[in-house]
Amino acid sequence: VCTSRFWFNYRHVANTLSVYRSVKRLGIPDSHIVLMLADDMACNPRNPKPATVFSHKNMELNVYGDDVEVDYRSYEVTVENFLRVLTGRIPPSTPRSKRLLSDDRSNILIYMTGHGGNGFLKFQDSEEITNVELADAFEQMWQKRRYNELLFIIDTCQGASMYERFYSPNIMALASSQVGEDSLSHQPDLGIGVHLMDRYTFYVLEFLEEIHPASQTNMNDLFQVCPKSLCVSTPGHRTDLFQRDPQNVLITDFFGSVRKVEITTETLSLDRDVPGLESKFPEEELATEPLKYAEQLPVAQIIHQKPKQKDWHPPGGFILGLWALIIMVFFKTYGIKHMKHVF
Amino acid sequence: AGPVQVQLVVPMAVVFAPGSVPGDLPRPLPFRDVQEMEISVNLRTSVTSRYEMRYRSTTAQEEAALAAATAREADAALYPLQDTTLGSLTMYVVPETSSLLPQGINVYVGKHRSALLRAGGGLAALQARLREVTQLMSFTATSIAAALSDRVPDGQLGPDARRNLKSSLGYEITFSLLNPDPKSHTVDWDIEGAVNRFVKPVLDKLSLVANFSVDSQILYYAVLGVTPRYDKESSSFLLSAHSLPHVINPVEARLGSSAASLYPVLNFLLYVPERSHSPLYIQDKDGAPVSTNAFHSPRWGGIMVYNVEAPASPQVSLPLHVDVDMARVMEVFLAQLRLLFGLSREEVPPEFLLESPGNEGLADWELDHLLWAHAVENIATVSTTLTSLAQLLDKIGNIVIKDDVASEVYRAVASVQSAVTELSLGHLLAAFQASKEAVTCSERAFFDPSLLHLLYFPDDQKFAIYIPLFLPMAVPILLSLAKIVRETRLRKKEPTKMD
To answer: From the record, what ranges are coiled-coil (chain B) (predicted)?
Structure first.
């Protein structure tokens, strides 16, 4: 999830797309990835290299590429949609690609980046998500067993405050900086004119480049990524809610996808001389009714309708009480004789 | 998770053929007996199984049926004479010397809901055998624990516990043909015919459990993610067992699935290897080639490799035309479908003989097995969902419950109560359908989009918002109130002064 928009937040989009690429390289298909981006970088009029997003000033890798599948783009990246995806309370018309169809055997990786503060994360300059809401959403997921294990990575200022309030089991969290510290960006590119990546994500990506689908590297190595000397901020992590020892947790458990596979040793013995059942489409064309133009919505009627009168509700108790208090005080203070001037 | 107390009742009849009655029966036939067993999953979840057995001797018609030559014919003849309600079982005990059962076989389990047992060894041995058979044909402690897997503490479950497909209202089955080398092979598969002839009967039988929809597709230039190794001894290519997990992911990106339905998708892939990698065999862990040349992944589906025979003469015009033998392919795919649902016949004691279900795909008692597991799973899910919904509403006081959410909750509660009642009466089908209804209603209520709580106001934010608004407004009011109080006190004092 990239929670920022606008050109000067280029680095957040580059962060998210780089992590997306690594995860796809390690085997997770698009159907299992929900990508939320403001997606206003590649075609931004201020982009000197249109249709590209670079993560390194050598411009080696265009992380935007040809096959980025953004599920929630632009103004759809809101706190409400994010919580809906997590908890599953999505309107029934939402397509499969926008849903999190996980069950009790799914390991979920959540990566968030953007601008944050002590206890909150800013979504697109207009709203915030607090750490309590996030913790409650994870609890809702746990109640319905929508995850087996969850890895939460956040790269924002004061990122560690976002995982302080988690209380559901099987969650491991990593953040780029502690409370009171800012996460810094990595390097500006003079050609493009903005900072291209954040430090923490940059070093995490360098680490991930060494991982391949069959690798046995564990989580403890991920915790060592980006020490204070390189990152200036102090990355933090939280493993007390996690049941397994991080030493035994493989990176590919979250970043890649290795399935359990069994050899099929049984077969069913079928009787081959089964006559075909009647096929669903009979040979002769059934006589169908001639098609009619369906009744459309009576647009003319609707346009010229008078607006519906909203039901008038009398003012509620609080407002009435307040007004009564004010009027009573006014007339008590200044005397009843003023009443006749009012009425 | 809310407490779940469920009693599973299995009505059973144990019928003794003449000459098979053990000498140490406690009472003369016919009589009834009840055996209860507790399967406790955790502190708050307990499932009791109760086998209500009716012991009796055979009727004349049953004796005639048991006089058949083989066990299979006897089973077919006995079928019209049995109680065929879902969930019930009938056990026929034949004399020790009977020739119905082959040598070395003591139990024959038929296609429907009955079994033939060989008497011998007295009542205790017979009861032990009866218990084994009934557990095989209905449910065991492991199958119930697997159904309730999210309530069992993690340490107790084996690593293979969460393999079976979760109970769902429907499943989507997709058959895909992968042809990575269309220049060499033109592959024709009559999938529509195969689905009609082989798959439809199985799905019709499973239609009690869930709705199934079937689609198929052909993918060209879809390669496996793994390069197979060439083995000189057998002059074939081999895929080793530990590289199989990496095969699925690159392919999955290319498999489509219906955007509209939310049911779990089961993918069955048929891979025709390239000419340069033919023939391709899958190796198991010991290095031996697998006879089915197929493997499956729990909760995902299965893949089978179909080797094309090398043409007799080396000079042959490409592309070769390949007509896929759909019956052989469907034998494997349908077996994989059974395994995905958890219907395996691997762990059967050697003295048991299980009748093959033939084209129906699964025996009646296997269907019952699924229904028991899914009914228990549904009831547990509903209880968890409703409890967590209640906890959510307790915690977040300002969520508005719409009327239809409330009515769904009431319906879910009523359905789950009826499911538990029906289970304790032994009506498996009614219980399963009630549990399905309960799950639908409770999921609809829990996942209703209106139940999103976004208004989290920490206390300091409340002060920060309301104080600047109300404090300036309140200052003149408070001062005026103070003035009124002072005047009233002065006026009260004045009359006393004047006097």
So the answer is: none
Residue A119 located in a structural domain: yes
Kindly determine whether residue A261 and residue B244, on different chains, have CB atoms separated by under 8 Å.
yes
Structural domain contains residue A327: no
Shortest alpha-carbon distance between residue A48 and chain B (Å): 32
Give yes or no for a contact between B299 and B205, defined as CB atoms under 8 angstroms apart: no
For residue A84, give how far its alpha carbon lies from the nearest alpha carbon of chain B (Å). Answer: 7
Collapsing DSSP states into helix, strand and coil, what is residue B402?
Answer: coil
How many domains does chain A contain in total? 1
ipTM exceeding the 0.85 mark: no
pLDDT digits (tens, 9 = 90+) for B279-317: 889 888 888 888 889 999 988 899 999 998 877 677 777
Domain with residue A131: its CATH number is 3.40.50.1460
Query: Edge-to-edge strands of the sheet including B229-231?
Result: B229-231, B236-239, B280-282
The verdict on residue A74 lying in a domain is: yes
Considering only the top CATH level, what class is B170-341? Answer: alpha beta
**In whole angstroms, how far apart are CA B404 and each of B18, B318, B388, B415, B418?**
61, 63, 18, 16, 21
CA nearest A324 in B: which residue? B477
The reply to whether A174 falls in a domain is yes
What pTM value is reported for the model?
0.81
Q: Where are the domains of chain B?
A: 170-341
**pLDDT tens string B395-443:** 776 677 888 899 999 999 999 999 999 988 888 899 999 999 999 999 9
Counting beta carbons within 10 angstroms of the beta carbon of residue B146, is it exposed (0 to 12), middle (13 to 18) or buried (19 or more)?
buried
Question: Which range marks the domain in which residue A220 is found?
Answer: 7-255
Q: Is-catalytic flag, A115?
A: yes
Q: Cβ B295–A268 below 8 Å, yes or no?
A: no
